[in-house]
Write a structure and sequence with these properties.
nine-stranded mixed β-sheet; Dihydrodipicolinate Reductase, domain 2; globular; alpha/beta; six-stranded parallel β-sheet; 25% strand; Rossmann fold
Length: 355
């Protein structure tokens, strides 16, 4: 690829994540031009184009793909549309960056991997927690510290009363699920990645929609319709891995806890442990316990760092830093938790065929 030729980007969906994270990230790339946006809202696509100096707008992303030549398509549309848009963008010969999740069911994730195998294009899912400044600091520190084998990880993202009331979150055919898909997809990716991505073998889970059905409860964000909401407001699950390690997961939009929000992942190793985003590393040497606190610094915004790394992979013609097979496996794990909750039994996972 010619390094002196700017990469042309077409953006699908101009909601908050696009305007607040992705477009500033592309703006930080000196060798990239966002040349078009597509969104069903005329007001949104027009105002976004004006704010970010984007020359072309479309109401239909398929028209955008057919009328303009892009190197990269960036997908920030509602979750239920991701799979179809990824497949269409790959078919148009474009590299693809897509917001999480890759898809809203494992069947669609498998179709994406099959299509990807037939092309030389690069697909990456924007799991930006891998680029969080504290994550990068932890990995750098842990590279020189032996914490042994990680045998247990606990991941929590629990909100007391932060339920997003929009239909794109609360209706399963649009979102894929509730906090398990909204929050769990991030937690599993980061927790599992820091464990070294061992092979998952068994999944169990429970999902609940008890508080969201009550009309006497509220949310600090927006109201929701209890009658049309068909996703969970709380989910918990356990993933067992081939090496014997375990990952436990808890997510909620509504939950009776003292804290407004709790976000934490804790890894337990045979020679030490660590926490995110707190940046605490603990251990014991010669019967003397010790704690190390990493000082948090601002760093490059996570989405910007992710986009810069993705562009570098394209330029250098190397694999993307976030393996799409791992992103598909996360969808497999989420689906298995729903299956386990429905069947009230543990689910045994087949291995994904990367081909």
């Amino acid at each position: 690829m010619q390094e002196n030729v700017p990469l042309r980007v077409g953006l699908i969906g101009v909601g908050g994540i696009a305007r607040g994270q992705h477009l500033p990230g592309w703006a930080a790339c000196s060798d990239v031009e966002v040349v078009a946006v597509a969104d069903v809202s005329e007001e949104m696509r027009t105002s976004t184009a004006e704010k970010f100096n984007i020359p072309h707008t479309f109401s239909d992303y398929r028209e955008m793909l057919s009328q303009a030549k892009f190197d990269i398509v960036d997908i920030c549309a509602p979750s239920a549309l991701h799979a179809r848009m990824i497949l269409d963008s790959l078919a148009a010969g474009c590299h693809v960056l897509c917001e999480k999740p890759m898809a809203t069911c494992f069947e669609d994730a498998q179709k994406i991997l099959a299509a990807l195998h037939k092309t030389d294009r690069k697909l990456m899912i924007a799991q930006q927690f891998r680029y969080d400044p504290m994550t990068l600091q932890l990995r750098k520190f842990l590279a020189d510290l032996n914490i042994g084998d990680i045998y247990y990880t606990r991941a929590q993202w629990l909100r007391r009363r932060f339920l997003p009331g929009q239909a794109t979150f609360t209706q399963k055919h649009l979102s894929g699920g509730g906090p398990l898909y909204d929050l769990g997809v991030h937690l599993i990716d980061l927790a599992w990645w820091m464990m070294g991505n061992p092979q998952p073998t068994h999944v169990s889970g429970g999902v609940y929609n008890l508080l969201a059905k009550r009309t006497d409860l509220g949310s600090d964000w927006t109201d929701w319709n209890p009658e049309t909401m068909d996703v969970e407001d709380f989910a918990a699950g356990t993933i067992r891995f081939e090496n014997g390690s375990i990952l436990s997961l808890e997510t909620s939009w509504l939950a009776f806890q003292p804290e407004a929000e709790t976000t934490q992942i804790q890894w337990f190793g045979s020679k030490g442990g660590f926490q995110w985003p707190q940046g605490t590393i603990v251990g014991e040497t010669n019967r003397i316990p010790w704690d190390t606190q990493i000082r948090k610094h601002q760093g490059t915004p996570a989405h910007t760092a992710l986009i810069l790394d993705y562009v570098k992979a394209i330029r250098e013609e190397r694999p993307v830093p976030i393996d799409p097979v791992q992103s598909a496996q996360i969808i497999q794990l989420l689906d298995a938790m729903y299956q386990s909750a429905e069947k009230k039994q543990e689910i045994t996972l087949p291995k994904i065929d990367a081909e």
